[in-house]
Amino acid sequence: MAVRMPLVPTASMLLVRKAMVEGFKGENRLWRYVMLAIIARRLLRRLMDSDARTVAVERLLPGQSLILRGVTSRDVPKR
C-alpha cells in the first residue's frame, strides 16, 4: 500500500522533521528529547498493537442481514 504525502506538510510533520534533523545533529538537547519522545511513542504504539483486527468471518445466507459497528480494542478479547 502506497503512502501518500500531502502537498503542504502539516504542523506535526514539520515538528517531526525538525526534531529528527536537530536531534541527530546533537547541538540542542531539547530537540534530542523531542526526537526520543517521538520514537518512543511510535515504538509503544507498535508494541501495544493498535492495529485493526479481524473479529469474525462468517458466510451470509440469502435473507440474512449484516450489522457493522465500531469496536474499541477493549471490547475485543486478546488471542
In short:
The protein is 44% helix and 0% strand.
What is the oligomer described by this structure? single chain
* Mean pLDDT across all amino acids: 79
How many alpha or pi helices? 2
Kindly report how far apart the N and C termini lie: 26 Å
Proportion of strand residues: under 5%
Category from helices, strands and their pairing: mainly alpha
Count of β-strands = 0
The H/E string reads HH
Instruction: Give the % helix.
Output: 40-55%
Low-confidence stretches: none
Biggest sheet architecture: none
Evaluate the radius of gyration.
20 Å
Name the overall outline: elongated
Secondary-structure blueprint of this entry?
Elements: H1 11-25, H2 29-48
Helix pairs in contact: 1-2
Describe this entry's structure for a reader.
- The structure is a single chain.
- This protein has a domain at 11-48.
- 44% of the residues lie in helices and 0% in strands.
- The protein starts with 10 loop residues before the first helix and ends in a 31-residue tail after the last helix.
- The chain has helices at 11-25, 29-48.
- With 79 residues, the chain is mostly helical.
- It is elongated, with a radius of gyration of 20 Å.
- Helix 1 (11-25) crosses helix 2 (29-48).
- The chain is built from two helices and no strands.
